[in-house]
Amino acid sequence: MAQQYPEWIWQNGAIKPWAEATAHVMSHALHYGSSVFEGIRSYATPDGAAIFRLTDHLSRLYHSAKIYDMVLPYTRDELAAACREVIKKNGLSAAYLRPVAWRGLGGFGLSAETPIDVAVAAWPMGPYLGPEALEQGITACVSSWQRFAPNTIPAGAKAGGNYLSGQLIAREARRLGFGEGIALASSGLLSEGAGENLFLVFDGALHTTPASASILTGITRHSLITLAREDGIEVIERDIPREYLYLADEVFMCGTAAEVTPIRAIDGKQVGAGKAGRVTRRIQELFFGLFNGKTNDQWGWLEPV
Ligand code: PMP
């Protein structure tokens, strides 16, 4: 396992060899899910390696921490420097970055004020849902597990504990032979994928579920909404009933790991033509264009390593 990972990890202010970046078994987070984290990609662009929306991802990390009263002992600039350092020190360019902060050792009550440990790891990463997924699309099913209701666990925090829900949804889908699972919200309306936001296409317009549908409001989702609107594609954030999945012209998922992944069938029903549709392909072109220089990054989303 160890050899799949790059040699260096940043932890609590210093770069360490992979094997030394450890946490104690009595860490609060291990028992209670009290961690917050980010998933960020760096890309090899014509102008060198760049981290996609690093500042926005780190801002979300601080927002997640605030919700759980975790005060990170580093500034956003210090963590941004740590992210860059981990990419450089490991000689990476196209990679996945994982900053994580957790309640560590030093108190075991649920409301204990433990020290907050912080680490940043990085590793090379290709398409998350399989190499063919970006072109041919994946299959998906609607999960028998619902997302947590908004007054239970806040979906807007990217916290470790939330991913128990994601694991149930993803594992059930894969056990049943599907590429990914899609969850309904406690309202019974569509929420999102196990670890991805969801877009449906009707008559050339994009429809996506709102923050009130217990989603993590993804940074990729925001990027795609921005790129689409700039390109003259209408985007509507709205409550979406499950059956619209079967009636949409196109459906795709998005996220840092999933990027823009078409869905070709849901619950065994073909979506549209059963392959990436015209709008999905345009969105992919705009999104991946950011990294090959074909889409002008007028927003400063590419932050050089
Ligand atoms: N929803 C969930 C539950 C996720 O885990 C992710 C991945 N972080 C997303 C949506 C997409 O978010 P982003 O585009 O910021 O990666």
Task: State the gist of this model.
With 305 residues, the protein is of the alpha+beta class. The chain has eight helices and 17 strands. The two termini are 27 Å apart.
Plain-language structure description:
This protein is an alpha+beta fold and 305 residues long. The chain has two domains: 2-124, 2-Layer Sandwich (D-amino Acid Aminotransferase, Chain A, domain 1), CATH 3.30.470; 133-292, D-amino Acid Aminotransferase, Chain A, domain 2 (Alpha-Beta Barrel). The chain has eight helices and 17 strands. It has helices at 28-32, 54-67, 76-89, 133-136, 163-175, 219-230, 244-247, 278-292; strands at 8-11, 14-17, 35-37, 40-45, 48-52, 95-103, 116-124, 138-142, 180-184, 190-193, 197-202, 205-208, 235-237, 250-255, 259-266, 269-270, 302-304. Strands 8, 9, 10, 11, 12, 13, 14, 15 and 16 form a nine-stranded mixed sheet that branches. The radius of gyration is 19 Å and the shape is globular. The model has no long low-confidence stretch (mean pLDDT 96). The chain binds 4'-deoxy-4'-aminopyridoxal-5'-phosphate. The site of 4'-deoxy-4'-aminopyridoxal-5'-phosphate has 14 residues, from helix 6. Residues 39, 166, 192, 195-197, 215-216, 218-221, 255-256 line the site of 4'-deoxy-4'-aminopyridoxal-5'-phosphate (PMP).
